[in-house]
Amino acid sequence: LEVSSEGVLVLDGERRIIGANRRAEVLLGAESGHLHGREAEGLFPADDALTPTLRRAVDGAPLVTASYRRA
Fold first, then answer.
1. How wide is the angle at C-alpha 49 spanned by C-alphas 6 and 13, nearest 5°?
2. Whose CB among 25, 27, 36, 55 lies 3.0–4.6 Å from 7's, allowing a Cys bridge?
3. What is the Cα–Cα distance from 67 to 1, expressed in whole angstroms?
4. Is the dihedral of CA 56, 13, 41, 64 positive or negative?
5. If we measure between CA atoms, which residue out of 7, 2, 11 comes closest to residue 56?
6. What is the pTM of this model?
7. Number of other residues whose CB lies within 10 A of the CB of residue 33
8. DSSP secondary structure string, the chain?
9. How far apart are CA 47 and CA 13, in angstroms?
10. How far apart are CA 49 and CA 3, in angstroms?
11. 1-59 pLDDT, tens per residue?
């Protein structure tokens, strides 16, 4: 995952980040290791289209691919 051009976040059942590749850190403007333990929803605006997708995925809905591009 470290060589992926896509940002990847791994979440636990409480929607907290338990893993992130370097590209995710770069896209989210975080220093190495600083995403671990943070709530994923807090990284995106409340009205962001990705937030409901995060909720569904953690709640056990089928895996979907979502893209997020920072403005």
1. 70
2. 27
3. 16
4. negative
5. 11
6. 0.67
7. 9
8. -TT-SS--EEE-TTSBEEEE-HHHHHHTT--TT-STTSBGGGGS-TT-THHHHHHHHHTTPPP--------
9. 22
10. 26
11. 677 788 888 888 888 899 999 999 998 899 999 999 998 878 877 777 777 777 777 67
Per-residue CA distances from 34 to 21, 31, 61, 64, 70 (Å) = 11, 6, 27, 25, 19
Q: How many residues does the chain have?
A: 71
Q: What's the token pair of residue 64?
A: 């979907």
With CA atoms as reference, report the closest residue to 69 among 6, 4, 2, 1.
6
Task: Tell me which amino acid residue 51 is.
Answer: T
